[in-house]
């Protein structure tokens, strides 16, 4: 596919349909959540802020799943918790089903919360060990004063059945269940009050690989059955691929790339997304043996003092490649649309398309040009993507 730098897009998106306006359940605009950093025991002084979420915007259509992906500490959970209004946002706007809930309080907030629930990462820590399964799953019903005790008991048994657990387990305690069964209890609790939006915060990362697929299948089945809308949080791109309609990649409080799932995996355009994708195994031993991960240099910078300009500049392989352009350190890149429904926050995202790093990340064989250039050589950055049937260069990729 040819490049059209500066034009309508860098490629023709395969599945880049932007969300339809009238079906939007959740709309988040310039959401910001800062946590104050203070000093002193008696006289607290405000000395700075943790920029946990910084100007995050996205839309989530009803019945769809948005994957939210990024390294530890980039602000995924804080985004989810702020949307649920467990925090009061520092700035920005959250609109749920057409109603601005940014500053909602009291009974109105309580009623809205009933329509949004959370599934937590750790099914061991998130279930009260002193409560029976019946008590745990029935708690949201009691909190929202739904039904009589007998009706609630009946509803809990029904919910256990829906998530694939024996309804007779009602009086058992969490420690009597395996990790996968506990997460099923967490899912039953989340759907107890018939919510419309579920924020699933790394719902499978604490589970054995063999169990993960079961929980994903359960969540997908429930989504179809109850028309649920998911914000699905994960720390790597391997998990969200098949469950998400669209994916937002987060780095240090910001969304750096937002695209349909198909487009993100076929055409990652932010250097950070490419690095994340390079770590996702490809189920083809020949291609896999010739791929190299992009190891990002250094640690994630502190969200108290995010780097100037582009927040990713301290670790960016593309910036190195381009000879450290000044713009990366002086100008904060805004999300811009490079193809229909595909937004990227990088001044030089066009350079990523068809680069060796991108092709390695998506598993397209890297061809050998005349003279056999090493992978990562500039020659691969220009020109169109060569044929996939061309010979493959042995792995020899730079470590960033
Ligand atoms: N209540 C809080 N008070 C102060 N700082 C906080 C609070 N909650 C989160 N943070 C900070 O905000 C940043 C984002 O945290 P968050 O938990 O949202 O990240 P995350 O992407 O969910 O990470 P992980 O993958 O480890 O769960 C971190 O630097 C974290 O230390
Ligand atoms: S703007 Fe510069 S530093 Fe930021 S991702 Fe793009 S190339 Fe890298
Ligand atoms: Mg988290």
What would your notes on this structure say?
The chain is of the alpha/beta class. It has a domain at 254-381. 28% of the residues lie in helices and 20% in strands. The protein contains 13 helices and twelve strands. It has helices spanning 76-83, 106-113, 133-143, 149-162, 179-191, 209-226, 237-240, 261-266, 271-278, 285-290, 317-321, 327-330, 356-362; strands at residues 24-39, 45-61, 65-69, 91-96, 99-100, 116-119, 197-201, 229-234, 246-251, 254-260, 336-339, 342-344. The strands form two sheets. An eight-stranded mixed beta sheet has the order 6-7-8-3-9-10-12-11. Strands 2-1-4-5 form a four-stranded antiparallel beta sheet. Strand 11 and strand 12 form a beta hairpin. The two termini are 27 Å apart. Mean pLDDT is 86; it is low at 1-8 and 369-400. The site of iron/sulfur cluster has 12 residues, from helix 11.
Topology:
Layout: E1 24-39, E2 45-61, E3 65-69, H1 76-83, E4 91-96, E5 99-100, H2 106-113, E6 116-119, H3 133-143, H4 149-162, H5 179-191, E7 197-201, H6 209-226, E8 229-234, H7 237-240, E9 246-251, E10 254-260, H8 261-266, H9 271-278, H10 285-290, H11 317-321, H12 327-330, E11 336-339, E12 342-344, H13 356-362
Parallel strand pairs: 3-8, 3-9, 6-7, 7-8
Antiparallel strand pairs: 1-2, 1-4, 4-5, 9-10, 10-12, 11-12
Helix pairs in contact: 3-4, 3-5, 4-5, 5-6, 9-13
């Amino acid at each position: 596919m040819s490049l059209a730098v500066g034009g309508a897009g860098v490629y023709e998106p395969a599945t880049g349909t932007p969300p339809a306006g009238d079906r939007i359940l959740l709309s988040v605009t310039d959401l910001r959540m800062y946590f104050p950093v203070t000093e002193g025991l008696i006289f607290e002084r405000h000395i700075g802020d943790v920029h946990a979420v910084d100007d995050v915007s996205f839309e989530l259509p009803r019945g769809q799943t948005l994957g939210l992906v990024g390294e530890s500490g980039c602000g995924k959970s804080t985004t989810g918790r702020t949307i649920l209004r467990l925090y009061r946002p520092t700035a920005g706007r959250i609109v749920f089903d057409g109603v601005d809930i940014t500053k909602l309080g009291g009974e109105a907030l309580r009623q809205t919360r009933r329509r949004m629930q959370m599934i937590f990462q750790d099914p061991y820590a998130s279930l009260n060990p002193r409560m029976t399964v019946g008590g745990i799953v029935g708690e949201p019903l009691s909190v929202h004063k739904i039904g009589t005790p007998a009706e609630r008991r009946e509803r809990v048994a029904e919910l256990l059945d829906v998530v694939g657990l024996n309804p007779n387990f009602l009086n058992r305690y969490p420690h009597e269940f395996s990790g996968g069964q506990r997460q099923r209890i967490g899912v039953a609790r989340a759907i107890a009050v018939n919510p419309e939006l579920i924020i699933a915060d790394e719902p499978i990362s604490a589970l054995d690989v063999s169990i993960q697929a079961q929980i994903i299948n359960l969540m997908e089945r429930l989504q179809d059955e109850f028309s649920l809308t998911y914000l699905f949080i994960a720390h790597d791109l391997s998990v969200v691929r098949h469950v998400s309609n669209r994916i937002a990649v987060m780095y240090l409080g910001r969304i750096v790339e937002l695209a349909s799932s198909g487009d993100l995996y076929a055409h990652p355009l932010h250097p950070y997304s490419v690095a994340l994708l390079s770590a996702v195994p490809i189920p083809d031993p020949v291609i896999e043996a010739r791929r190299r991960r992009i190891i990002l240099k250094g640690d994630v910078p502190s969200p108290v003092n995010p780097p100037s300009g582009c927040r990713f500049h301290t670790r960016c392989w593309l910036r190195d490649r381009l000879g450290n352009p000044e713009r990366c350190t002086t100008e904060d890149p805004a999300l811009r649309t490079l193809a229909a429904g595909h937004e990227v926050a990088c001044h030089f995202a066009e350079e990523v398309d068809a680069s060796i790093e991108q092709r390695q990340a998506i598993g397209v064989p890297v061809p050998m040009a005349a003279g056999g250039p090493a992978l990562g050589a500039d020659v691969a950055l220009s020109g169109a993507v060569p044929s996939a049937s061309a010979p493959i260069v042995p792995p020899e990729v730079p470590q960033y």
